[in-house]
Amino acid sequence: MVTSSNDVPHEYPTDTDRGVLDGPQQEHILVLGDRSVINQGVTSNELSVAAHLAREHQRSTRKGACWLVLPVPQNVAANAPQTLEQNQDLITGTDLFVVMIGHTDALALTPAGEWERHLTATLSAAREMLPRDARVVLAEIPRLEAPTWWGRLGRHERHRRRLNRIIQRHTGTGSATRTMARLAALPAAASIGSPARERFAARYAQWAQAITAALATPDHT
To answer: Checking DSSP bridges between strand 18-21 and strand 65-71, what pairing results, if any?
Structure first.
């Protein structure tokens, strides 16, 4: 999301990057991504996408869950493959692997061909580490919200759509099931009168629901 510098809370959680929800047959959930879409603006990783997703999993399956947030350095896809390689011990036991990269690259107008190479390398590295039956979700890059003064929004929005078409091409293929999760932008009405932290937490909860829904009804188009 692009907002004014006075509105965006430039903060990230400093607490533990993982958690456990009690229950049988615990599923390991890992969210790899750009911090601006996985845990920016909240004071605890308990309000991150990964934690919300674990709670959605517990509600829908009555099973336990272990969740982990794995940010990509500098929030760019170019650093995602190396991040996986450096954390292979955390990847190998993952049951649900969620990739949320592209927001910063969309704003930076990273060339689409270059960005796709990084995404492909990320998925290839993950495939080598993940269990054979692991589920993989590629979350689309959410719509960029911006105030009216952001004159270049149209250019960034077109690039975001271009990168999302690349994500769509990479779902439903490979040895692991890949599903695309479509993420709606935070409704404007939801942000009126609400503290920024609450808006970010609500957005992450909404996206966790979208990811859970995508897993239930895979879209391989």
So the answer is: antiparallel
d(Cα 29, Cα 53) in Å, to the nearest integer? 8
The answer to whether the CB of 30 falls within 8 A of the CB of 50 is yes
From 181, 184, 95, select the one nearest 139 (Cα to Cα).
Answer: 181
Angle of helix 153-169 relative to helix 112-129, nearest 10 degrees, comes to 40
Q: How confident is the model over 133-166, as pLDDT tens digits?
A: 999 999 999 886 654 444 556 788 889 999 999 9
Answering whether pTM is above 0.90, one says no
Backbone φ and ψ for 29, nearest 5 degrees, come out as -115, 125
Question: Which residue do the tokens 């009804």 mark?
Answer: 217
**Rounded Cα distance, 146 and 19, in Å:** 33
Q: Please, which residues have CB within 8 angstroms of residue 142's CB and are 6 or more apart in sequence?
A: 1, 37, 103, 183, 184, 185, 207
